[in-house]
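hey team, just a heads up i'm posting the complex here instead of the shared drive bc the drive is being weird again. everything in one block, sequence lines first with there labels, then the predicted structure for the whole assembly after. its two chains so it's a bit long, scroll down
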Amino acid sequence: MNYCSQCGEGVNFIVPDGDNRARHVCSACGYIHYENPKMVVGCIPEWEDKILLCRRAIEPRYGLWTLPAGFMENEETSAEGASRETLEEAGAHVEVSQLFAMFSLPHINQIYLMYRASMPDASFAAGTESLDVGLYEEKDIPWEELAFPVVNETLKLYFSDRQTGEFRVHSGDIIKESSEPLRYRVEHL
Amino acid sequence: MNYCSQCGEGVNFIVPDGDNRARHVCSACGYIHYENPKMVVGCIPEWEDKILLCRRAIEPRYGLWTLPAGFMENEETSAEGASRETLEEAGAHVEVSQLFAMFSLPHINQIYLMYRASMPDASFAAGTESLDVGLYEEKDIPWEELAFPVVNETLKLYFSDRQTGEFRVHSGDIIKESSEPLRYRVEHL
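-- predicted structure starts here --
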């Protein structure tokens, strides 16, 4: 951030009066530009004993598999956002049934909210952000080609709960431990 | 938003190519300024059979009672943010124990995440954003002087669960139905 979005003058990265962390503050009008984490909302779309995965047509992780999910928009609920993303990326109309998992990813300032969602039929189609979309049984999940640690963790918890017959609501953090080699740890609350 | 924070030129509010909703887009450099909901993270601090409430020293709802909560910051987890806000507003060091409730408030583009948290002792003190802080038994909760519908709803669910002996994870939406008179409805997923 270089300029004030209110008045167009330059900003300084300083600690405002009464605050305890640096913000971008306008040098002319004094406006404080707060920056906060973003929500990513998505679904685990269920059809019989299969779930719907998308192969990414965009960076990062082009060509790898993920659950349909994306940035929550203003003026929608988180469940509406999860359903919208599933329609956009996977061409599937779903009914969101239950909050399943929430993860903080502080290294990229994101919170993931993943919902279980039922598919009324087996209709789906790759959206513009997907190369391919498909229904997968547990034994066929491409574990080695998943796009993100949060997808891996969500799917592990999902199949583990399914085996017990009871789906819980999971919450925790995915913490980046190192870049080379890329390594994360998962902490469950 | 009037000016591009990247280059300082004017922005237009238009639908970018390949998108389906209007964004602020720079007329010079083309940068797209996305705006997304913000997370509010907070606690239900527990001490014996009491919980800790704060009386607001700031607008909106100056003088009314609330649970300690505030905007989540970058580079922290949601539980860390909830704990930080409790220390800042109520002077209480808490240990976050469990995600308790998540609500979407689409009319103000916020998501609330409320955690149960235990207080190691009965120490607390009003921070700069609080007029007063106090421990309340259920029978003494100032129901008519609560600051926000989300606080009312969280406390109702909390005491209801406590009576059953089992705390669940709640999720839902708080939808504004009208301004005059001010009226909301709560939808549980």
